[in-house]
Amino acid sequence: MRIPILVLLVLCAGLKAVAKVQLPSIFTDNMVLQQQSAVAIWGHANPNATMHIITGWDKKNYTLHVPASGKWTLKIQTPKAGGPYTLTFNDGSLLNLRNILIGEVWFCSGQSNMEMALKGNSSPVLNAGEIILAADNPSLRLYRVGRAANIAPAADLKGRWVESTSETARDFSALAFQYGQFLQKKLKVPIGIILSSAGGTMIEAWMSRNSLNDFPEVKIPERLDPAQAVHKEPTVLYNGMIAPVAGYGIKGFLWLQGESNRHEPELYEKLFPAMVADWRKIWKLGEIPFYYVQIAPYGGTDKTRNGPGLREAQLKASKIIPNCGMVCTLDIGMETDIHFMDKTTPALRAAYWALGKTYGIKGINYHSPELKTMQIEGNAAILNFDYAPYLTSYRKPLTLFEIAGQDRKFYPAKAIIKANQITLSSNDVPQPIAVRYAYKEWVKAELFNNDGLPASSFRTDNW
Prior knowledge:
Elements: H1 5-19, E1 32-34, E2 38-44, E3 50-55, E4 60-65, E5 71-77, E6 82-90, E7 94-110, H2 112-115, H3 128-133, E8 137-144, E9 161-164, H4 166-170, H5 174-187, E10 191-197, H6 236-242, E11 252-256, H7 265-283, E12 290-293, H8 307-317, E13 324-327, H9 344-358, E14 370-377, E15 380-386, E16 391-392, E17 401-404, E18 410-412, E19 414-418, E20 421-425, E21 434-437, E22 448-449, E23 458-459
């Protein structure tokens, strides 16, 4: 049978299009590459072809042989921050990426309080109009991963890099955007923010099958029912929204999640460090910084939920996970809305961690006060704190401390601050053995250091 010439031309054109260099959507115009690093790039090209990749910043020509599978990966060396540059791919056909910046890249992930855009939803974002108005910044680039739930790791995801403008910032995470904005202003280098978040999700959904092997109580689905809330299932968001971008050159992570795990704080205490270790393993960048925002107090009435227990699990994780830091939000929660309006304060405190600890800028304190020791002297419990040469309640009475004796009944405690020490006592507890601070679903922080960073809720008992 003779095939018409027109059909042959169409078929050949189609084959040529397939053979052309194809890049995952994380590699687009306007992207930011991590500075002074060997950054990984990958994609598909003409099988068995010789491909050239030319970096616009130094005009270096990287040459590689494309395997028969057509899949290739390569590491290229980036210079100090700067740009814009081009990146050229040639396997017989040309592909040019333009307006590329070299700078600092951060990966931001979590559930609704991370996802919530500046434009707000049923809850508004505090000062959103002013933040959006000042959003134009060509040195700040934004990438939002499209929501995807997969039963197996996906090869690609939906998204594209954009410059920060009032229009693009409006639809981007209020917290992640401001985090990038604070970093860019202080570091004066290009900043890239990758956002991968989905509201109403438990940590299990963000974890790989391998990382959940040690948790038989977590049931991993073998198939997904589209009629169900598939994004809530274990591993599915890792497969659809983490795996496709894992390995992209980044400086570190910022995480805000935990509200949906308030019914299982003991399990979360184990899952969270396992997830962090696994993400670092698959990124193959060593123990890069992992900063996270503690869940904020919320006056939920569901007695099966344990907000203070989850906050405690996150506080304990800060002592287990290497090169991490926790942002305390005990002062910004809302009694009647789990979506707290103030996204500026946690973004600023997360930036303190990055600027002070990761980038080593002197003078920036980033650590909230933490209980160091407790001593019992007569009818008083004396608490000593780290990360606070001076504690303060801003001249307001401390009402959130409780104290208990052998009967395990907690009574309100009189609290007196002296430098980094607090003395607690109660006429109802002549022989104290345990104390708690703000260990309730709904509270508003009272205890701070002089940098305005609140202490987390805590307890010395395990009752």
